[in-house]
Amino acid sequence: MISQSSFRRAQKYRNPHAENSMTQGPIWKSLLRFFFPLLMGTLFQQLYNTVDAVIVGRFVGKEALAAVGGGTAVYLNLLISFFIGLTSGAGIIISQFFGAQNESETSRSVHTALVMCFVGGLIMTALGLAATPWVLRVTKTPEDIMALSLTYLRIFFVSMVPMFMYNMTSSIMRAVGNAKVPLYILIAAVFTNIFLDLLFVVAFQWGVAGVAWATVASQAESMIISLIILGRSKTSVRLQAKKLTCTPHLLIKMLRLGLPAGIQATFYCLSNMIIQTAINSFGTITIASWAAYGKIDAVFWTMVSTMGVAVTTFSGQNYGARQYDRLKKCMRQAMLITLLMTASVTVIFLLTGSYIFRLFTTESVVIAGGMQILHFLAPWWVTYVAIEVLSGIIRGSGDSFIPMIITLFCVCVLRLVWLFTAVPHWNTIITVLACYPISWSITSLLFFIYWFSGKWLHKPLEHI
């Protein structure tokens, strides 16, 4: 990606954008300074999605709630996860050029990424509008919510361009170490979404269409604000309309890095859908217990995945700057920080879990089932930490293919083998859920083996 000559030229000057650089100073401070705004942004994103469900459920009815949060949510998560994974390659490329102080290539990468997102958003809108009726039929959407689901999805797909453009501009800002501005934009969008939900649903009585249009408007707001901020930037990521063009070799590199991440995200969703199907076979009480546990589980996943994004950005900048020793130090410090946070939340939830479950249900049998799941899975959370930390650093260095292969083998192959061999013989909910710690432990082991092999680090930059 970065030739030896261009790297030497880039080192002849230092830029004012160094204030967001993660290539200098204490590593743990750089990680935490980036981590906490990103964590807050993720939590607000969850609030964003929750508000829609709460308002439509309270003011429209259960059919509308099912139309917004049922199979349609799974369908949208599948598509959005793939595209966000696909565009993650752009963030890695930009962070590497930024770390190498190569302003011209950073700028070209930014404009290529934005063009890619705009075109991708248009394609996703067209495909979504065309495929939605077929998808709803294939997923056996009940007839009583078919029309509502169709209305919601058709309007929602209008937001694809602004959604992807905002996510890309946020990724660009984070790639150069700025996690605060995307957070502020997201907070503003959350309040806009809440206001418009109430206006369109409660005041105007638009039902699910009101929720969908509120999403479109708030996403458009996020896109416009973020593009204005990029346009006023004083750094190499500044947006200039005249430079909006697609540089073929950069696009190819972005897709080569992002496509494995997109495929991986898609298979994660499919794997969880299959596991959910197995859980559904145990009946309503177990489903409710699993759903309540998911609210606790989400705290851990939000925390650890946020650290994964942080180390990916750190790795990209330092790999671009060829500060390889900082990558190794980052692994040790990020592992320690994340393990301490994981151990802390594990102890807290094990001690207070029964009280937390009471926020979601008053039925003792559901609480008991949730506590059984929590006591089984929570102690195993620590085995997942290495997956996020190691895969994040490895991807940031430009190697996304091997992490995809490792993850797909463990998440898809091993889990499916377990579900179709062990579960029929020991048909309990714990047997089903055992696929998680088994796959986490083996995946972590494989990542450690690949990490210590050193093969991910010594690839010449120009071949990335």
For the record, give the distance between the C-alpha atoms at the N and C termini, rounded to a whole number. Answer: 5 Å
Strand and helix order: HHHHHHHHHHHHHHHHH
The low-confidence parts are 1-18, 460-464
Strand proportion, as a percent range, falls in under 5%
Mind summarizing the main beta sheet?
A: none
User: What is the CA-based Rg, rounded?
Assistant: 22 Å
Number of strands: 0
What general outline do the C-alpha atoms trace? globular
What can you tell me about this protein's structure?
The chain has 464 residues and is mainly alpha-helical. The chain is 80% helix and 0% strand. The protein is built from 17 helices and no strands. Helix 4 (71-99) packs parallel to helix 7 (160-175). The longest helix is centred in the middle third of the chain and has 37 residues, at 284-320. It starts with a helix and ends in an 11-residue tail after the last helix.
Summarize the helices and strands and which ones pair or pack.
Layout lengths: L3 H7 L16 H33 L2 H8 L1 H29 L3 H36 L4 H14 L3 H16 L4 H24 L4 H24 L16 H33 L3 H37 L3 H34 L6 H14 L7 H12 L4 H25 L3 H5 L1 H19 L11
Helix pairs in contact: 2-3, 2-8, 2-11, 3-4, 3-6, 4-5, 4-7, 4-10, 4-11, 5-6, 5-7, 5-10, 6-9, 7-9, 8-9, 10-15, 11-12, 11-13, 11-14, 12-13, 12-14, 14-17, 15-17
